[in-house]
Amino acid sequence: MMWKWIGVGIYMLALLAIGIAASRRMGDMRDYYAGGKKFGFLAAAFSARATGESAWLLLGLTGMGAMLGVQAFWVVVGEVLGVAGCWLLMAGRFKRLTDRYDAITIPDYLEGRFRDGSKKLRMVSAAALVIFVTIYVSAQIDATGTAFESFLGVDYMTGALVGFAVVMAYIVSGGFVAVVWSDVFQGTLMFLGLVILPIVGITMIGGVDEMMAGLAAIDPDLTRLSGPGGWSTKRVLEIIGLSLIGLGFLGSPQIFVRLLSLKSDKEIAPGAAVALVWTIVADSGAVVTGMVGRTLLAPAGFRVEMLGNGGQNVLPLLVELALPAMLVGLFIAIVLSAIMSTVDSLLIVASSAAVRDWYQQVKHPEIPDADLVGLSRKVTVALALVSLGVAFTVATLVPGRTVFWFVIFGWSGIAATFCPTIILSLFWSKFTARGAMAAMVVGFVGVPLFKFGAPALPEIGWAFSALSELPPAFLLSGLAGMVASLTDPVGQAKLSDIANELDEAAS
Questions:
Q1: What CATH code is assigned to 2-506?
Q2: Most buried of 75, 89, 274, 463, CB within 10 angstroms?
Q3: With a threshold of 0.90, does the pTM exceed it?
């Protein structure tokens, strides 16, 4: 137990040191929310990947690997496609346009792109960010408590509070700079952990063939890409749902603010290479870790219930089984890295929406950026406290939840609200402010609708349940934006010069 606490302690001290160092670079709100737009490709790519993965990679995807076997690789396919689309198709256009509009937040970009002097688009996007980001952060805090409980035997709420306090300490002091620097550190830990652990496990089993044979002996369905029951309609819809999880990378604010913070568009090509390699290796490593854990744990009087809801206990169990005590603390730090690298990024995005995009730009445009750093820090803490309250409430009311479900709901809400809007804004010159408003509102409402309402429909509810909430909400959001834009001649007249801007951004 001592070694575990030593590993966690060193990790948390490193984060606090990063916060202190980053605080010395804090001059104004541009630094607090966008790092002064001075980051290189390596920092942006590692930060984007660490932020985009969160607790679900270490606990959720490893659990899926244990429970679903090779079928979980459909998630890896979806992630790779999403990351490729983000960096190869959208990043260059987005970076050049945000520089043109001198944007430091996503609502800044939207207001510039749509020539929206009414501030309505900024207010709607800021409100959506604050709401869904708060849910997403609460999911990460929930995962922190689960991690402390699983690895260290610490009470759930105590663990959540410890992790919460550390994040608050470095993010409030160092802002976006501390977030990116800590993400590089944490993303490196996550990458190494998901390379080393499956290799150790496969070596213990005797090789990949022996692992697959062991899984087949437990359940032949674990070795089939189709999963249980073969290629039924329901199974195809489930696989489509898993493969489309990468849609969230195509415009989610917490990812795209990394692209915005790059020092130039010349950083995008090498950043894409780093992001894709990281995703392929780390995500595949997470699935294999789950498969290895299921195989190694099976012989010793194992019951599948030991894996916990959604298999999310497989990583702690495998680490205890396969590694010496002095390395267990390191893997606890790696799990916490996955969680905290997302919490800090999301809080910065939500705080920027409240302070920059609402308080300053809508209510008090006369206040200069330099006077708002203190308020930004206070709002960051306030939003974090609300997220903490949501996490504890969900933990009390939904004891059977999984990390994967909780995280994906918040992720889907952000993605369905913003991704169709960002995609259309980059590629379609006829996309208007009214269309963007319709897309965001429909995406925002669509996620809870397709999560809780549509699955209860008679006859067809099973299809929505199998597909999950993100794909239909995403599609409906995009369609709403297109229809509203095509019926908005006044809005299109305001954008008579936008086609040239989009052409220049594409070059």
A1: 1.20.1730.10
A2: 75
A3: no
